[in-house]
Amino acid sequence: MSRQKELVDAIAALPGVHTEPHRFGGVEFKVGTREIGHVHGDRMVDIPLTLAIRAQLVAEKRANVHHLLPESGWLSYYMNADQDLAGAQWLLSFSYLRTLGQLRKRGLADPASDAVNISAELDQLGASGELRTLLSCVQTEEAA
Question: How many domains does the chain have?
Answer without folding.
Answer: 1
